[in-house]
Design goal:
alpha+beta, Alpha-Beta Plaits, Rhomboid-like fold, four-stranded antiparallel sheet, 55% helix
Length: 336
């Protein structure tokens, strides 16, 4: 495979002959030269002029690597260039039909083993919604500490396993908005700002916050089922680790669906577990709630990675955001 401004070679007519090519950032290119008698090089340089045409466009990274290997094995000169939305694969115009036949033959021979190449590369959305979520947590904390009895709020709206199992499911949501002290609040504000924003850049604003909220709720519910007693926990950290799980599950599923070594697909999930172990198992933290939130997020992220190659359009995103806000509002109304 040849890159801009680099030399490459293909086999010549005999083992001791090489043809040298140089690309000058254009589609029609070539160099000229004659063997240098005084040079120590044993290989002559000949004049080669070639015109490159696009064979495929919008390829994934693994696709362009595999197709490049196929073309290299048949001795066909090719060039890959990165574009917005994927890779372009170019070949000599005179070799276009041969290159196309070689790729088609490869796909035909490897049809049963060939992964689905129709999966599109991810589209990332810019935004800072995680910062706004952190500000909302700050507002709740200020109101609770200045206008209410903090301990009473924790008792009445915290994630109490016994009360949740008795039907007070709203506590799975309200407890996410309550924090015991300033360090607890600040750590979760930073976590939700970073990981919440990251999730929404992949899934979109509405779907992202809906899944984060669902992961936090599921984490608290599963934790209540595990303890089944008067275990009490508060804080948005369950949702934060849910966001980490969403990223890990989504990225792992995307890599599973793409061609390439399957072992690499588990690296994002492993990275999420490492974050869970590093940040979620410190003293005075509810490790099981963090773990359940992470696992719930991983499941949701995997589902999203399986069925959505890019964020949904504006209207579905708005619907999911409204659904998330409605769950928050209804939970607090039930609590009050």
């Amino acid at each position: 495979m040849f890159l801009d401004n680099t030399f490459g070679c293909i086999p010549g007519p005999s083992p001791c002959v090489e043809k040298k090519f140089v690309f000058l950032n254009c589609l029609s290119c070539g160099i000229s030269g004659k063997p240098n008698v005084g040079s120590s090089s044993a290989f002559p340089i000949t004049l080669v002029v070639c015109t490159l045409v696009i064979l495929f466009n919008g390829l994934l990274n693994e696709e362009v690597k595999i197709y490049g290997l196929v073309l290299s094995s048949t001795g066909i000169l090719h060039h890959a260039r990165k574009r917005h939305g994927g890779w372009d694969l170019l070949v000599e115009s005179s070799k276009y039909e041969c290159a196309l036949e070689a790729i088609e033959l490869y796909l035909l021979e490897n049809k049963e083993r060939q992964p689905d190449f129709e999966y599109k590369e991810q589209v990332y959305q810019k935004g800072f919604s995680g910062i706004w979520a952190g500000i909302i947590l700050l507002i709740f904390h200020v109101v609770i500490t200045t206008c209410c009895d903090s301990q009473m709020v924790i008792r009445e709206y915290g994630s109490s396993a016994r009360h949740i199992l008795r039907g007070e499911v709203y506590r799975c949501v309200t407890s996410l908005m309550i924090h015991g002290d300033t360090p607890h609040l600040v750590s979760n504000m930073l976590g939700i700002a970073v990981f919440g924003t990251a999730v929404c850049s992949i899934t979109g604003l509405g779907v992202g916050w809906f899944m984060i909220l669902m992961a936090g709720m599921a984490g608290n519910m599963l934790n209540a089922v595990l303890y089944g007693t008067d275990h009490l926990s508060i804080g948005a950290s369950t949702a934060v680790f849910g966001a980490i799980g969403i990223m890990g599950g989504c990225q792992s599923m995307i890599k599973i669906l793409q061609p390439g070594p399957r072992i690499k697909a588990f690296l994002p999930f492993g990275a999420g577990l490492a974050l869970l172990g590093f940040f979620g198992s410190s003293l005075h933290t509810d490790l099981t709630a963090h773990l359940f939130g992470f696992l719930a997020g991983a499941v949701l992220g995997g589902i999203h990675g399986m069925f959505a190659g890019q964020p949904l359009t504006k209207n579905p995103q708005a619907a999911f955001l409204v659904a998330a806000l409605t769950i928050l509002a209804v939970s607090w109304l039930q609590a009050c």
